[in-house]
Amino acid sequence: MRLLIPFLLLLVSSPVLAQPKTKLFIRVGKLYDAKNSSFLTNQQIIVADGVIEAVGHNIVKPANATVLNLTTCTVTPGLIDMHTHLLLHQKQTKDGLEVASKVPASERIKSGLVFARQHIEAGITTVRDLGNSGQYLDSQLQKTLAESKEIGPTMYVSGPIISPPGGQFSKLFPADSFVINQEYRVVSGVEDARAAVLEHKKRGVNVIKVCMNTENRVLAPEEIAAIVQTAHKNGLSVTAHATYDDSAKDAVLAGVDGIEHGYILSDSTLALMAQRGTYLVPTDVSREKGELLVAGIGMVGKEAEDYLKSALDGFHDRLRRAVNKGVMIVSGSDFYNDVKGIERGEGAVDVIQSYYEAGLPAKDVLRYATYNAAKALGLSERLGVISKGAKADLVFFNGDLENDFAQSLANVKMVLKEGRIIYPKAKPQSKTKLKNPQGSK
């Protein structure tokens, strides 16, 4: 647990602050203006009924407001992770996905709740979950999180990934073949592709995710076109798992809204994405986390260093080229790994650090995880910003995010979700103790 000063302990344990209608007057050292990609100093925020009522300099404190003095902190909008898999916990083995998919549904939901809590304690107040969650287990978890707003982020879901035959499995033993239909919605032909979207719509998903390519299979251009047309007609956006240039280009030409991963993208595809307004979700890793992941697959010494350097160089080059071409970047972690030493929330926030390590300024990489992500969700007027009328999802980082990015990003002091203090959270009837926190897909 992070160390917390006595003042903060008293605030968090106060029964008054647990009430959503409490008015808060918050003083901060720095405020990140996501819409304009800038940092403002000596700001105040008034929160009432879960909404930001006012923000600015020299605001008069309302007579009935509770004061939070967080002048040593930088406040940002609640972070948004646009590529999660809360229902998947996968070991770094060749059969990791198969094994993780066989976990009973009840256990996956239980673990998902723990992962959700870890995300919000890391400052992530909204997630978009993109499949590998059985048949609509994500919808069940979404409902649970919505009914109890204090246990995790707001969740948007895709349902089963729409894929070509075989899902994302390269090869399965016959006895394991049931996992394909458990984890994916396999389509064959244009009419089946349309039907898959309508099935998802009926189940109340928020976004359609397609798998454009696996190691040896792709969705046909006419299938992805049918998926996009049907989804857009029914008010759903489409994002595409596409790791290679050809499949990404096919998806962009078909009109998808976003590309997930895009590890290998040509300048011409990036230019096409910028022209068509297709965003990119680079699911990259920092050097520190990369070292743990590489060690997890058994690489050591020079082999490990060379492998990691090649991967990071590729990530950074692709990201910088995308930015230079004018592609909208949206933050997404794709962190679902069972790796000793990396907690889910920490692993999710790491993707923002990876963008910073590519040489991009703090003011830009934070925008990817706030305003840009909210824009991709179609919610940028009320989410991903600190402005009057916006949802009061706020994260307070100890220190100066502008000038001490890496250290501050890992040091969350407080999280507000819809105006409630969600982290740190006191144990019931306790004034001194706090509750302990609990590959590409």
TrEMBL record:
<dbReference type="InterPro" id="IPR006680">
    <property type="entry name" value="Amidohydro-rel"/>
</dbReference>
<dbReference type="InterPro" id="IPR032466">
    <property type="entry name" value="Metal_Hydrolase"/>
</dbReference>
<protein>
    <recommendedName>
        <fullName>Amidohydrolase-related domain-containing protein</fullName>
    </recommendedName>
</protein>
<dbReference type="InterPro" id="IPR057744">
    <property type="entry name" value="OTAase-like"/>
</dbReference>
<feature type="signal peptide">
    <location>
        <begin position="1"/>
        <end position="18"/>
    </location>
</feature>
<keyword id="KW-0732">Signal</keyword>
<feature type="domain" description="Amidohydrolase-related">
    <location>
        <begin position="74"/>
        <end position="421"/>
    </location>
</feature>
<dbReference type="InterPro" id="IPR011059">
    <property type="entry name" value="Metal-dep_hydrolase_composite"/>
</dbReference>
<dbReference type="Pfam" id="PF01979">
    <property type="entry name" value="Amidohydro_1"/>
</dbReference>
<dbReference type="GO" id="GO:0016810">
    <property type="term" value="F:hydrolase activity, acting on carbon-nitrogen (but not peptide) bonds"/>
</dbReference>
<dbReference type="InterPro" id="IPR051781">
    <property type="entry name" value="Metallo-dep_Hydrolase"/>
</dbReference>
